[in-house]
Task: structure prediction
Amino acid sequence: MINVFGRSVGAPSNLTRLILLSALSVALMILDHRGHHLEKIRSGLNLLAYPIQLIASVPAYVGGSIGDFFTTRGTLRQDNEKLLAERQGLNAKVQQFDALEEENARLRRMLGSAAQVADKVLAAELVEVSSEPFTRKIVVAKGSRDGVYVGQSVIDAHGIMGQVTQVASQVSRVTLITDAGHAIPVLDNRSGLRMLVFGTGDPDTLKVPYLTSASDIKEGDLLVSSGMGGTFPPGYPVAQVRRIVNDPNEAFLAITAKPAAQLNHGKQVMLIWRGTPPKSGASAK
Amino acid sequence: MRLGLDAHRRLTLVATCTVAVILAIMPFPAWAEPFRPDWVGLVLIYWCLAMPERTSVGTGWLLGFLQDVLYGSLLGSNALGKTLLAFLTVRLHLQLRMFPRWQQAVSIFGLLIANQLLVLWIRGAIGQAPDTFIYWTPSVVGALLWPWLFVILRDLRRRGGLT
Result:
């Protein structure tokens, strides 16, 4: 590493090298940001970085395994009971769900619109590494060889977590909805009002700008993805409105919301492949 | 001179840099995340102080570039920050070496802030700037850790036979 740039007789001075390397960095940044010309190079580099990520994730992995090993019988029994109770509750709901789905399909047929097809889901393990400080990104152990693509939606059991922004062959990076550079189109589940939800960089806070005091939104409202823009599938929970502040001096309401997904917990996420609706409404079965 | 650098010496340098890079992406509990110092920056500053004729802007750029790849951040942003950090350290290394340890820590704080400021500008330019003062804590923690880190790295360097 040092040999390459080690100073020897006739080598350029530090200032020259600073200027050259700065120019190179700026060129890289422009290529990366403007044209996304570096996708191929990037996934190659990510492949090289994979071993380092694996090494860095070892302590967390070992810590987790040791924790699992020493889980007491009592805890396991408690977990088991809790899961059984949860399963019963879910089973009861599923009974209704079948009937409702049938009814929904029938109504859609009557309206002549395309039926919604169930989305395909793949569970992915988290690679326990941190991203750049004060960004909200995670790395998951599924990549292009599993069919993961840029822009794919990622959810957990409670709601939408974010979208895939970089893909290498074995791993991919997911930008969470709380990242300061992220926005997602949603609608209010109660009133049907459409809006955008932005990340703040804070792990537990989202903001909803550009709504006036005349908007029909209340604290506690559930915001679900609207599917507009085509990136996220419609109907998944995104956030719950936490606080609405109406400052008469400001043009818009200051609204904060809490993400529905548990972004900081759990070791597994789910990647969604959108179910493709049939071309014509008549072919819906 | 280049060939005189034997494998053992090079190993010490590469090993410390690798450990710093791994510490930079090792998962912390969420509450501790803002207190993670810029390990890569600190180790880079040390080597630029200890042997400015061997490690300087080139090493800084490589480390920063590696960080960009591992962080998935804008390619070149950390590279530029680390290049500047290395350049400033090498430029000031004669003064910095003379300072008592606490004064050195204060100067290191300034260098780390310069690096963070540059990265913040870049992130602001692409609309991903964090709007919180906690952003600066890594530099504070880094400066506080400096005296201890300095001693550890100096011992490692002497054991590794690097002059």
Observations:
- Chain B has one domain: 7-159.
- The longest helix of chain B spans residues 101-125.
- Chain B has a mean pLDDT of 88.
- Chain B touches chain A through 58 residues (CB under 8 Å).
